[in-house]
From TrEMBL:
InterPro entries: YdbH. This is YdbH domain-containing protein. The lineage of its organism: Bacteria, Pseudomonadati, Pseudomonadota, Gammaproteobacteria, Pseudomonadales.
């Protein structure tokens, strides 16, 4: 039987336990409330010699940050290494851990400055972890870039006093077959934090990291190494990164199937939490290198492959490059700048090699004492391959700048099509130097810079063996945000084509030498064009995006005694026109405004020209003419034409002519001809056409010729006949009908002026003809000294050159029958072309005219010969 004192003691103990239990219950409730834990349940607790186990533990936390749901199945807390201080149980094992975290839908996004890194607090946190934690099955549902992602795997965590904390995880994505293994070791004390991390995919190592952060009196020292010697599962890593990227719109490049990467750093950081801003203010050294044995797709660039290395030195946040090297190849580079080029100029692959080089002697101000000397070699393969070699001085710290020297760019292409132009066998070699920074660009082409084309074809123009000398050209540009705000290209420019072919020109070599000036949408060319024919033309060209093209060409005065370069240049120069004396000059202005008709003005001046046209000798030709093309109409103005003499067999001159011609461009042969003056001297008199106008579509055209003061003795001088002489002055009118068949005269009139004149025909042959016929004897005797009062004739001329004269002759011979009146009716027929030809076949005629006359006679005889049946 229990004594009263024993019952009292038991009662007090039970009361104390009840009070402690009540206090613990109330404290536990307040703890759950402070931690926003709405539900905390455990099921089937068991106490065994090995430890404490729970069949199931569930927890739900609802806080302003979001909702956390935790479910643990098969929790075992071992007695081994049990401690009276948190975390009490040092051996923890979980069969299944399910975790779900949902952030609050509306959460104030306030960027708070991270507190400085507290090594002691971090050490206390790590010390609170159990010595051994095993999660056999881990299920996590967490926020990610796609909204939420599910992970499945296991976790092993151990902590020892010497090695610190070690964490091993095996993770697998939802719907994925690959398994990510994470092995991390973390060691910390009061002043040091050291991390070693290794990543593997499907048991194949991918990345390793060693990082050591030590607190010092001046801040923090950070040393580390990152290595990926066999990164052969980078495509899978890229998929993981895309899932957990902080921004859903982040587009990461496709990763290669194999790569080797490494990096190392020794940095002195200011006090504070490690972040990007802290790194910008660091001092120390950073180096990185990589090898991409297989192409790596980079958005906007292409498939990248090769090697690179980089070393940087920093002092208080001022970083400069100490070393840079690369040997990279880009396949299918379709960057935005390449898409702006014509298809024939795009490259299929680019190869870039960068090596260390010697320092340059002369540097720009921005590169003085902070230049990284490099040698670059860039090669492009494709329809237009190119190769660039240069010495590059690159700033090793911001603000950035680059200076190129000893640069040479070689370009070649078998075929290049640009708009309406086709180029064949292009070869360009450019020697240049330049400078580039964020504000300006300058480029100078040096001696030896030239471009060669075997053939260039566009529209009706074809050039063969074209060479452009570009040495001396300078490009200057002002930059804003990487784009050219203002640019200027200026300098000498030389062009040479071994053969230039155009329907309007005789095929031969041409050259251009002058200066080029281009400012944004304005282009100016000032220089001289010359041809193998010795033709030289000073030319000024200007183009403006608003006003279009303007061209001015000046033909310096040509002295034709030394030769006629126009005849050797213009394909449509009249084949029968030869000029061998005199002076000729011209000027032309061409305007091609946008969306408007072409405007052309041509002024031509001739002084003292002499030569041959067809079978006519010309001398003393002075002329001023103007050609205007505007608003779809051509106007030719012959302001003045004076010709001393033209001799097609019969001398004609002096001649004066003034006329205008207007016609629409679409119908140049159906315009309006307006004659202001037309007058010429002929056989001591004049031939004149009264001012008039004709529309050329109304053919045949009627042109009335007025003859005044023609002297008969001049005719007999030009057309001598045996024993024939005479005097008299004649006037007349000849209605010329001009048509496509030729010239025709119908019922023209010629008559002698009052009081008449005199004819003398004294020929022994004529006398012998009339000795046997009394009537003919009277005629021959009368014409030996015939004084006529009337001599009139009707003139008819057909397009074949046949002249028919029907004459009425009235007068007397004072020696016959006391001068009784005698009347004659005479019909004469003459082949005028043959007559002129016979008049031209004299010793005084030009040899060229003689050959042309003889050729014409042969052609006429051949056409007149009867054809064999």
């Amino acid at each position: 039987m229990i004594s009263r004192r024993t019952w009292l003691r038991l009662s007090c103990l039970l009361l104390v336990l009840a009070l402690l239990g009540g206090y613990a219950y109330l404290s536990w409730g307040r703890l759950l409330e402070r931690q926003h834990i709405q539900r905390f349940d455990w099921h089937t607790p068991r106490l065994t010699p090995d430890g404490l186990s729970l069949r199931r533990l569930e927890l739900q936390q609802q806080s302003p940050a979001g909702t956390l749901q935790l479910q643990i199945v098969g929790l075992q807390l071992g007695w081994r290494d049990f401690s009276l201080e948190p975390p009490f149980w040092q051996q923890v094992r979980i069969e299944r851990l399910a975790l779900q975290w949902r952030p609050a839908a509306e959460r104030a996004e306030t960027a708070e400055q991270a507190p400085p890194l507290d090594f002691q607090a971090l050490g206390q946190l790590l010390a609170a972890l159990p010595r051994s934690l095993v999660v056999e099955e881990l299920l996590a549902d967490l926020p990610c870039a796609k909204g939420h992602c599910e992970l499945r795997g296991d976790l092993h965590q151990t902590r020892t006093a010497s090695a610190g904390t070690q964490l091993e995880m095996q993770l697998q994505r939802q719907g994925g077959d690959s398994q990510l293994s994470v092995n991390a070791q973390l060691h910390t004390d009061a002043d040091t934090l050291e991390l070693q991390l290794a990543l593997a995919l499907d048991q194949r190592p991918q990345l390793s990291l060693h990082s050591s952060l030590q607190r010092t009196a001046d801040g923090q020292q950070w040393h580390g190494e990152l290595a990926a010697p066999t990164l052969n599962e980078s495509a899978v890593l890229r998929t993981w990164l895309e899932d957990w990227a902080p921004l859903p719109e982040l587009s990461l490049p496709g990763a290669p199937s194999a790569a080797q990467l490494s990096a190392s750093w020794q940095l002195q950081l200011p006090q504070g939490a490690p972040d990007l801003d802290l790194l910008r203010r660091a001092s120390g050294r950073l180096s990185a290198s990589g090898t991409l044995p297989e192409p790596w797709p980079i958005p906007g660039l292409g498939q990248l492959q090769g090697e690179f290395s980089l070393a940087l030195l920093g002092l208080d946040g001022h970083w400069r490059a100490e070393q840079l090297a690369a040997d990279l190849t880009v396949q299918q580079p379709l960057a935005d700048w390449q898409r702006t080029l014509p298809a024939t100029l795009r490259s299929d692959s680019l190869q870039l090699r960068i090596e260390a080089s010697e320092s340059q002697d002369v540097l720009a101000d921005k590169l003085t004492e902070r230049a990284l000397p490099l040698a670059i070699h860039l090669r492009g393969q494709g329809s237009t391959p190119f190769e660039l070699r240069a010495q590059l001085a690159l700033t090793n710290a911001p603000p950035w700048a680059a200076q190129l020297t000893a640069a040479q760019l070689d370009i070649s292409s078998p075929r290049l099509d640009l708009a309406d132009w086709q180029a064949r066998k292009l070869k360009a070699s450019l020697q240049f130097e330049g400078y580039l920074d964020a504000e300006q660009l300058s480029l100078d082409l040096l001696k030896g810079s030239q471009l060669n084309l075997e053939r260039l074809t566009g529209s009706d123009l074809q050039l063969k063996r074209l060479r452009a000398d570009l040495a001396g050209l300078q490009l200057q540009a002002q930059l804003q945000d990487g784009a050219a705000e203002e640019w200027r290209l200026e300098g000498p420019l030389g062009l040479r084509a071994r053969r230039l072919a155009h329907p309007a020109l005789i095929t031969q070599g041409w050259r251009w030498q002058g200066r080029l000036k281009a400012i944004e949408e304005q282009i100016e060319l000032n220089g001289r064009v010359s041809a193998d024919s010795d033709l030289q033309l000073p030319v000024q060209l200007s183009y403006d995006g608003n006003r279009g093209l303007h061209a001015h060409a000046q033909l310096p005065e040509l002295f034709l005694r030394a030769g006629n370069p126009l005849a050797k240049t213009l394909a449509h120069w009249p084949a029968l026109l030869e000029l061998n004396r005199g002076r000729l000059s011209a000027s032309a202005v061409l305007n091609l405004p946008p969306n408007q008709a072409t405007a052309l003005k041509l002024d031509l001046t001739a002084k003292g020209l002499a030569g041959i046209y067809d079978r006519a000798a010309l001398s003393g030709l002075d002329a001023r003419a103007q050609v205007n093309l505007a608003r779809g109409e051509l106007r030719v103005t012959l302001a003045e034409l004076r010709l001393k003499e033209a001799n097609p067999g019969v001398p004609v001159g002096p001649l004066q002519l003034r006329a205008d011609y207007r016609a629409p461009i679409a119908q140049l042969d159906r315009g309006l001809l307006e004659l202001h003056q037309a007058q010429a001297g002929l056989m001591g008199g004049t031939v004149r056409v009264a001012p008039d106008r004709w529309r050329l579509e109304r053919i045949p055209l009627l042109v009335p010729l007025e003859l005044r003061g023609l002297q008969l003795n001049r005719l007999f001088t030009l057309y001598p006949a045996e024993g024939l002489a005479g005097t008299g002055i004649f006037d007349g009118q000849l209605p010329l009908h001009l048509s496509t068949e030729g010239i025709q005269v119908e019922r023209g009139r010629i008559a002698a002026r009052t009081p008449g004149g005199r004819l003398q025909l004294r020929s022994e042959r004529i006398r012998a003809l009339g000795s046997s016929n009394p009537t003919m004897q009277l005629v021959t005797q009368s014409l030996e000294d015939f004084h006529f009062t009337t001599l009139r004739s009707q003139v008819d001329y057909d397009p074949q050159g046949k002249l028919l004269l029907t004459m009425r002759l009235e007068g007397q011979n004072p020696a016959i029958e006391q001068g009784r009146p005698i009347h004659f009716n005479i019909n004469l027929e003459e082949d005028i072309p043959s007559l002129l030809a016979s008049l031209q076949l004299t010793d005084k005629v030009n040899e060229i005219i003689r050959r042309r006359v003889q050729q014409r006679i042969l052609e006429r005889n051949a056409n007149a010969a009867p054809k064999e049946p």
